[in-house]
Design a protein that fits this description.
It is built from 15 helices and 19 strands. The chain is of the alpha/beta class. The chain has two domains: 292 residues, Aldehyde Dehydrogenase, Chain A, domain 1, CATH 3.40.605; 188 residues, 3-Layer(aba) Sandwich (Aldehyde Dehydrogenase, Chain A, domain 2). The strands form five sheets. It has a seven-stranded mixed β-sheet, sandwiched between helices. Strands 9-8-7-10-11 form a five-stranded parallel β-sheet, with helices on both faces. Helix 2 packs across helix 8, helix 5 packs parallel to helix 6 and helix 10 packs across helix 11. It binds nicotinamide-adenine-dinucleotide (NAD).
């Protein structure tokens, strides 16, 4: 019997011993960069793979983090077949026994916490605290979904009727294709993969090509935890070739995707087409982008609001789906909040994430770097540049925290997801207009309101149309089990990762009724 779920604590880096051990992990991992990782299909490493993906450090463009074997369409199809072949035996494993693989993996990950975090510093450019939080969240997902499976495996409440025995069971779906993004290279990979597995499904995992080494190392950890061969396949590869093959395959039963709106909608459309021989409607869980707003009311604690905007907009260089990219401020306090936010943003240290003094690291790759700088150029004609607006050290993909003021709600930088350290300030005449502006987007992922006015908070509770709404705190940093996470509208299917509804999406309920 396990103790009740508790969130994994974050490492306190003000403690010298913790700093020393994290630094040691960073150096140890640096010595392991450049290794090769093959795809895994049916429990066998595919060697040589059809091709290789090179993963470079975004903070130091010439540093090779690793080479990861990529699948082609044929290997992707073999991976689905291998998962299909393993499904009968894995789905017959008792739910409590499946949960134990997750508990074991969580224990292994906890022991090697700094090592995994260090890999994220090198491969994703996360600073110490962000990397540590990513690993803690991965541990949380394993611990949480294991307990969730135990809960779902218990007898379910039904209205009982005399003369009959009625039971409802949650049974697995089949082969799941798991497609995570790069920005939580461990937590989202672990959460999406292990939720599907513990529910009794077999999985084909296609990681992001930008952070495949962290994913490969997590797959090895699951093997170390004893996961049977064939239950999990690992097939890195190109989205349009490997991704489309996996999504379109007739034996694929569901797709669990987290990433951009564009790719999510494409997957949704492709999965809706019935392939020859397919016997089900594929289920698609798609968690997508955001254009998240923080509303600051005139009654707010303005210092607290500025802290929240800075943390939400510039943490991990704004590369979170939950990042604040719009600050909507009551006109009476607009100038003050803008000033406080800009002062704080100017003070943020931009630099190599291996340096504990850095707060803002690089953006993920050359493509993102160019895209964000293009948005900044657009912003210069759509608003007033208050701070930032340019690149940092050319050794990595650094962009300085950027604030634009007086942006119109219909401007491109107020409507399109930039996914970088850029925030647009907008002025609202009153609280009602602030909420209107906050909802003036296709997305609906996170949002926050800073206010001391109870009637305004109650109004926002109803009218602010987002999946995760926060009051008097930042709009990033959802905790597993505490803030189940998922968005409305074009932000996705609102699966509420880390919540009690999540495993239901990966199972189907079967009712068995026996008349005596
Ligand atoms: P992306 O859409 O570019 O890629 C996501 C994944 O899809 C990657 O593994 C990629 O290789 C794969 N892919 C690309 N084309 C494909 C295709 N045709 N078929 C199948 N798979 C394909 O997104 P990204 O850049 O990795 O991640 C950033 C995006 O993710 C942002 O929009 C962000 O808001 C979003 N995100 C959302 C959440 C959430 O919970 N809502 C969490 C994290 C990130």
């Amino acid at each position: 019997m396990m103790e009740p779920f508790r969130n994994e604590p974050f490492t306190d880096f003000s403690v010298a011993g913790n700093r020393r051990s994290f630094d040691a992990a960073l150096r140890a991992v640096k010595g392991e960069l450049g290794q090769c990782y093959e795809p895994l299909v049916g429990g066998k490493r595919v060697s040589p793979p059809p091709r290789w993906i090179d993963s470079y450090c975004p903070a130091d463009k010439s540093l090779l983090v690793g080479k990861v074997g990529a699948a082609d369409a044929s290997l992707a199809a073999q991976a689905v077949q291998a998962a299909w072949d393993a499904f009968p035996s894995w789905s017959a494993v008792q739910p409590e026994a499946r949960a134990r693989y997750l508990y074991k993996a969580a224990a292994l990950l906890r022991r090697r916490k700094h090592e995994f975090s260090a890999w994220m510093v090198w491969e994703a450019g996360k600073n110490w605290a962000e990397a540590d939080a990513d690993t803690a969240e991965a541990i949380d997902f394993l611990e949480f979904y294991a307990r969730e499976m135990e809960r779902l495996a218990a007898p379910q409440p039904l209205n009982r009727t005399r003369g009959e025995d009625n039971e409802l069971y949650y049974v697995p779906l089949g082969v799941g294709v798991v497609i995570p993004p790069w920005n939580f290279p461990l937590a989202i990979v672990a959460g999406m993969t292990c939720a599907a597995l513990v529910a009794g499904n077999t999985v084909v995992l296609k990681p992001s090509s930008l952070t495949p080494v962290v994913a490969a190392r997590f797959v090895r950890l699951l093997q170390e935890a004893g996961l049977p061969d064939g239950v999990l396949q690992f097939v890195p590869g190109n989205g349009s070739e490997v991704g489309d093959t996996l999504v379109g395959h007739p034996l694929t039963r569901f797709v669990s995707f987290t990433g951009s709106r564009e790719v999510g909608l494409h997957i949704n459309e492709l999965a809706a087409r019935i392939a020859p021989g397919q016997r089900w409607i594929k289920r698609v869980i798609a968690e997508m982008g955001g254009k998240d707003a923080i509303v600051v009311d005139r009654s707010a604690d303005l210092e607290l609001a500025a802290d929240g905007i800075v943390a939400s907009a510039f943490g991990f260089a704004g590369q979170k789906c939950s990042a604040c990219s719009r600050a909507i401020v009551h006109r009476d306090v607009y100038d003050e909040v803008l000033k406080l936010t800009a002062e704080r943003a100017e003070r943020l240290a931009v630099g190599h994430p291996a340096d504990p003094a850095s707060f803002v690291g690089p953006v993920i790759d050359a493509k993102a770097y160019r895209r964000i700088l293009r948005y900044i150029e657009t912003g210069k004609s759509e608003g007033r540049l208050v701070c930032g607006g340019d690149a940092g050290d050319p050794a990595g993909y650094y962009i300085r925290p950027t604030i634009f003021a007086d942006v119109d709600s219909k401007a491109r930088i107020a409507q399109e997801e930039i996914f970088g350290p850029v925030v647009a300030f907008m002025r609202a005449n009153d609280f009602a207009q602030a909420l209107e502006l906050a909802n003036d987007t296709d997305y609906g992922l996170t949002g926050a309101v800073y206010s001391r006015d109870r009637t305004h908070l109650e109004r926002a509770r109803e009218a602010f149309h987002v999946g995760n709404l926060y009051f008097n705190r930042k709009c990033t940093g959802a905790l597993v089990g505490v803030h189940p996470f998922g968005g409305f509208n074009m932000s996705g299917t609102d699966s509420k990762a880390g919540g009690r509804d999540y495993l239901l999406l990966l199972t189907q309920a079967k009712l068995v009724s026996e008349k005596w």
